[in-house]
Design brief:
alpha+beta; five-stranded antiparallel beta sheet
């Protein structure tokens, strides 16, 4: 349920505005509505923003450091967070400089290796003595032609080295007027190979030393994270302070509070001598969304947090419906009781291991629920690790309606369309109830629900059971009654856009219902992927071993068993990953797109975040 909000303005003496902010933060009920106009940048905020940027940079850098296994469980507490931040940034920047220098040195080394150990300075000495020696390189296939060309132009050519693809040589100009533009000059650094090797060794050692220091520093990552939180909280405080309006000797700050917290704010205002103005949000206001859900719907919260959506303040909370149908979608897409059982074991183990962790409580409860749905759907269809039903115990073979080979797929498609009709028509029935005081709007929503059920029977007769006779009377009632109600009550005939969109709405309603067939398609593909890997594993096990002597045959058969297990296991792991991807793409989409469109939800809300102390 979306809790009603009140717009509140707190007024205090200008000289006490920081103290008032401290008390508001302790109270922790006001969602501050910071003005969209630019806020003057105070010295405190400028300094905090700089330090926060540095701290976040250091935190991200330390998070990328790979700790040795023996150090992963270490903790480091204490002070000196700012020192850690500055030292981390300095070390990483120094490491970057060294890595760039090392890359250049390796490039120079590669250029010098074909020439061997010598000092390029000797070339300058020879040039000063009147002998100009030029190092050159060329593709191997072109060397002979180039050699003839250079010799005829007055150069002496001396071969230095050659590789599979290139030839390295030096030239000496016998003719002072020889055309040097003919020379394919090679790049040579100004230092010797031995000096480059020595510098590479020193830089590598320094980088290794920095890595060791960073590993030691990364153990203090929790300290840096806490420092980032502290800076964020302080920045929020000073941002709110700078955003406070001022008028004469008073200052004021505005925001939103849930109606359930109005009494607490009034009590604090009376206690601290604040002025207080509380009113209902106006049409131009944009209150945050604060959702209170019953405990049995709380597992839905991790889903919304993961996908990062929240309904607008004037929209509706669909958490319960979302959770119910998402659970069904998850079970149908994964669709394997064996997977569900493994998921359940993992979820219960994590729940037991981290029993006191409140952050994990909701995600674990959600995963337990989804695991049970997967087990239920898998057992209904007799799907356990894609093992053929005849090899399963009788109680795992599913019900006949879902396991009859000739009709199984049709029955599942029927269920998909039935779920679609229930899901989408529920959106319109829900809206009809919300529009109870507007009879015309409510009847229009009932009309859309009737059309959806007409689409259901049409889809079933077209796709699932085309051999059955059409329920003409039922379709006439549903389509006729639905179309009449929609055109009479849901369409504003004075609005050209509304009239123009009516045909597209009718087509879209049918397409939305058809899109639920994805539950069947993704679930079926998941089954066949698992079955294919099972068959591949059995094919490996079927390789004959009778051509080997007894002991070798046993060893070879053991290796085949190991390889078979690896193939089947890797196949099922891949299948589980694809199934989770399918849930993210399809299971969430059916709720946030198809259902939400029919519910006219735009998900434009912002989360209620009260100004409060952070633990």
């Amino acid at each position: 349920m979306i809790v009603d909000m009140k717009k509140a303005t707190v007024i205090c003496l200008l000289s006490e505005k920081e103290k008032a902010l401290e008390r508001l933060r302790e109270l922790g009920v006001l969602h501050v509505d910071v003005a969209t106009t630019p806020i003057p940048l105070s010295e405190e905020r400028a300094d905090l923003e700089r330090r926060l940027v540095e701290a976040e940079k250091a935190m991200n850098l330390l998070m990328s450091v790979k700790l040795p296994r023996e150090k992963r469980k270490d903790t480091q507490a204490g002070s000196g967070s700012e020192r850690l931040v500055k030292e981390t940034i300095r070390l990483v920047e120094r490491k970057g400089e060294l890595a760039k220098r090392l890359e250049n040195l390796h490039r120079d080394r590669e250029a010098l290796i074909p020439w061997g150990e010598f000092s390029p300075k000797r070339l300058d000495d020879l040039a000063a003595a009147g002998v100009k020696v030029v190092p050159c390189s060329i593709i191997k296939e072109r060397f002979e032609a180039k050699q003839q060309e250079l010799e005829s132009a007055g150069f002496e050519v001396f071969l230095a080295n050659e590789t599979k693809s290139k030839v390295f040589f030096v030239t000496v100009a016998l003719d002072p007027n020889a055309d040097e533009s003919l020379l394919p000059s090679a790049y040579l650094p100004e230092v010797s190979l031995s000096k480059i090797d020595s510098e590479i060794e020193a830089l590598t050692a320094e980088i290794a030393e920095i890595n060791e220091i960073l590993e030691e520093t990364a153990v203090a990552l929790p300290v840096v994270k806490q420092y980032v939180e502290e800076l964020s909280a302080e920045l929020e405080f000073f941002t709110n302070r700078d955003a406070m309006g001022e008028s004469g000797v008073v200052a004021h700050i505005s925001g939103y509070i849930p109606v359930t917290q109005e009494g607490a704010l009034r009590t604090a205002a009376g206690k601290y001598g604040w002025g207080l103005l509380i009113k209902n949000p106006g049409p131009d206001d944009n209150p945050p969304t604060f959702i209170e859900t019953p405990k049995f719907i709380e597992p839905a919260k991790p889903i919304f947090e993961f996908i990062g959506i929240v309904p607008g303040y004037n929209e509706w909370d669909i958490s319960g419906v979302f959770l119910f149908f998402f659970t069904i979608f998850f079970g149908m897409i994964v669709g394997d009781a064996g997977y569900g059982f493994l998921f359940l074991l993992v979820a219960l183990a994590v729940k037991f291991k981290f029993a006191g962790n409140e952050k994990l409580k909701r995600p674990i409860n959600l995963f337990i629920l989804l695991s049970c749905a997967t087990i239920a759907w898998g057992l209904l269809g007799g799907t356990v690790f894609a093992i053929p039903p005849e090899r399963l115990p009788r109680w795992m073979r599913g019900i006949n309606w879902f396991t009859d080979e000739t009709m199984k797929n049709k029955h599942i498609q029927y269920v998909c369309f039935l779920i679609a009709a229930v899901h989408l028509s529920l959106a319109h029935i829900w809206k009809a109830i919300l529009y109870f005081n507007h009879k015309k709007k409510a009847l229009g929503q009932i009309g859309w629900a009737l059309i959806l059920w007409g689409n259901f029977f049409t889809a079933v007769n077209l796709i699932v059971y085309p051999e059955d006779s059409w329920p003409v009377t039922t379709l006439a009632i549903l389509y006729g009654g639905g179309a009449f109600l929609v055109m009479a009550c849901a369409v504003d005939w004075r609005d050209v856009g509304d009239v123009f969109n009516l045909p597209f709405g009718l087509i879209g309603a049918f397409v939305d219902l058809l899109s639920y067939i994805r539950l069947f398609a993704v679930g079926l593909s998941s089954y066949y992927i698992a079955a294919s890997f099972n068959n591949m594993g059995l094919m490996i096990l079927g390789i004959p071993t009778d051509w080997l002597p007894g002991p070798l045959a046993a060893v070879f058969y053991f290796l085949l068993v190991v390889f078979m297990v690896l193939v089947i296991l890797s196949g099922h792991v891949l299948n589980v990953m694809l199934a989770f991807l399918g849930v993210l793409v399809h299971g969430i989409r059916l709720n946030t797109l198809e259902f939400s469109n029919h519910m006219e939800l735009q998900w434009l809300g912002r989360v209620y975040k009260p100004f409060q102390k952070r633990e």
